[in-house]
Amino acid sequence: MLSISEFSEMCRLSPQALRFYHSEGLLVPADVDEQTGYRSYTFDQVERAMLVTVLREAGMSVKLVRRALDEPDAAPDLLRRHEEEVRHRRRAEDEAISDARELLGSRPEVLLRRTPEMTVASKPVPGTSAEHDWDEVDAAVAAAVQDVVKAVESCGAVVSGVPWRAWAGETPEQKRRSLTAEGPHWLVKVPIAGEEKAIAGLPEDIEVQAFEARDELSIFIPGRNSMAKYGTALSRLFTHPLQDAYLDVSRMRHLLHDHGVETTAAVCELDRTDDGPEDGQGVQM
């Protein structure tokens, strides 16, 4: 029998770690003295200690390590799934580091620009909840954009600009449905160009719209969407000084660049009288 100190030295595991693994059922001593509480181990437990160490160093949780040891046949699949999660986490961390480097190196600035008129193909985005689950929204929006792009190219037209998403509230029916769980809550807009005959060949679920030229405030924030980034964009836009003008939040857009999202809002002069959005690009938020 090996004392806990001897077993600790042999396996390169601290006595504290051995006590923890005992409490978690990963490495139960061969004997525990009822009077002193001293733990003793056998030499053939070294192999189990090695497996515990390797799996823990691989980043597996205590729960997964226990399953891998208790179900040897399932262990390879458990390790494979853990590896996929680690790779996904590493990619997310790499993206976050890149975002942080870019944000710290150059803080996002609000820009005033003139956006030209254009023709857009618009389609509702199905399958998203009313909550701001950005991963869910991003996946559904990306799929909808891809559908529109394929339809545009298949009829002989071309994509002529950066797609964007907007809140689904261009019609009374959309506004009503946007307040329900089913939605849709978002629309995708894809700028297009082509002959009138080609554009007319788009499927019925894609609406062709005229986007009117307008002044906009714009801010680009790199990386994946999050509620914090969205809130930051809104804060910077609404605190940007304007002279004799205001932001029309009913016409906000979220342009979908490859490495981040650009949030824009239409700038309106104070003496302008509006009965509602002229170009149907959003909803009062």
Per-chain topology:
Blueprint: E1 2-3, H1 4-11, H2 15-23, E2 31-32, E3 39-41, H3 46-57, H4 62-70, H5 75-105, E4 111-115, E5 118-125, H6 134-154, E6 158-159, E7 164-167, H7 172-178, E8 186-193, H8 196-200, E9 207-211, E10 214-222, H9 227-238, E11 245-257, E12 260-269
Antiparallel strand pairs: 1-3, 2-3, 4-10, 5-8, 5-9, 6-8, 7-8, 7-11, 10-12, 11-12
Helix pairs in contact: 4-5
Protein model, in words:
With 285 residues, the protein is an alpha+beta fold. The protein is 40% helix and 25% strand. It has 9 helices and 12 strands. Strands 4, 5, 6, 7, 8, 9, 10, 11 and 12 form a 9-stranded antiparallel sheet that branches. Strands 1-3-2 form a 3-stranded antiparallel sheet, with helices on one face. Strand 2 and strand 3 form a beta hairpin. The protein is elongated, with a radius of gyration of 29 Å.
Main attributes of the structure:
285 residues, alpha+beta, Multidrug-efflux Transporter Regulator, Chain: A, Domain 2, Multidrug-efflux Transporter 1 Regulator Bmrr, Chain A, 2 domains, nine-stranded antiparallel sheet
